[in-house]
Amino acid sequence: xxxxxxxxxxxxxxxxxxxxxxxxxxxxxxxxxxxxxxxxxxxxxxxxxxxxxxxxxxxxxxxxxxxxxxxxxxxxxxxxxxxxxxxxxxxxxxxxxxxxxxxxxxxxxxxxxxxxxxxxxxxxxxxxxxxxxxxxxxxxxxxxxxxxxxxxxxxxxxxxxxxxxxxxxxxxxxxxxxxxxxxxxxxxxxxxxxxxxxxxxxxxxxxxxxxxxxxxxxxxxxxxxxxxxxxxxxxxxxxxxxxxxxxx
Length: 248
Ligand SMILES: [Zn+2]
Ligand SMILES: [Zn+2]
Hints:
The protein is of the alpha+beta class. Helix content is 39%, strand content 13%.
C-alpha cells in the first residue's frame, strides 16, 4: 500500500505543482484523530484489525480466566471487576464485543477489565506483531503509541543514548525520542523526575506535567536486551514506588 501511495504522489507531483506528504499513523490512532475532527485529505484505514486475528476462543477464555485469578490474588483487580470479566468470558456473544472495544480503545470499553484482556490476548498479539514488524517502516515511526496495534507503551529500554518503547499489548518495540514524555509528549527536561531500583538496572522516568511515568531497563548496565515477559513483572515494586510519589 505504501509503495502504491508513493508512486501516486510522485505522479501527482510531476503532473501538478502540488506536494503531497504521507503520514504513517497507527489505525486506532488515526480513527481517534479523524473522529476528533482532524482533517486528513485521504486516509487508508485498516479497520477491524482484531477480526483478522485467528483466535482459539477456548484458549482465550482459559488465559483470561487465569489472568483474572492471578490479578485478583495480587490485589490488582477489584472483586466486582473480576466478576464482570468472568461473566463476560461466559458470554459467547459479549466476549468478542468486549475484546473489540478494548482493542479499539473505545470509550465504552470496561477500563477495569482491560488488564485481563491484555494478558489473555497477548500471545496472539505478540505473534501477529512479530510477523508484521519486519514489513513496517519502524525507523520512521516517531510516535508514542505502538506502530503495530495502537496500544500504549508499558515499558522502555534505554541503550546508548536511545530509548525504545515496548507496547503493553503486542510487545512490539520502536524508538522514541528519549527526552520526550511518552504520555503527554512534553520535552522539557525540568519536568522529568527519575529514580532507580537498588540494582540501578531498572529505572522510572516520571513526568511532573502529566503525573504519569514509564519504567524500563538500562540495557547498557544490564548487559542484555529487554525481556518483555519478565522485566515488566520484575519491576512491579517500582510501580508501587512511583504510586507513592503520586505518579500513575
Ligand atoms: Zn502494540
Ligand atoms: Zn507527561
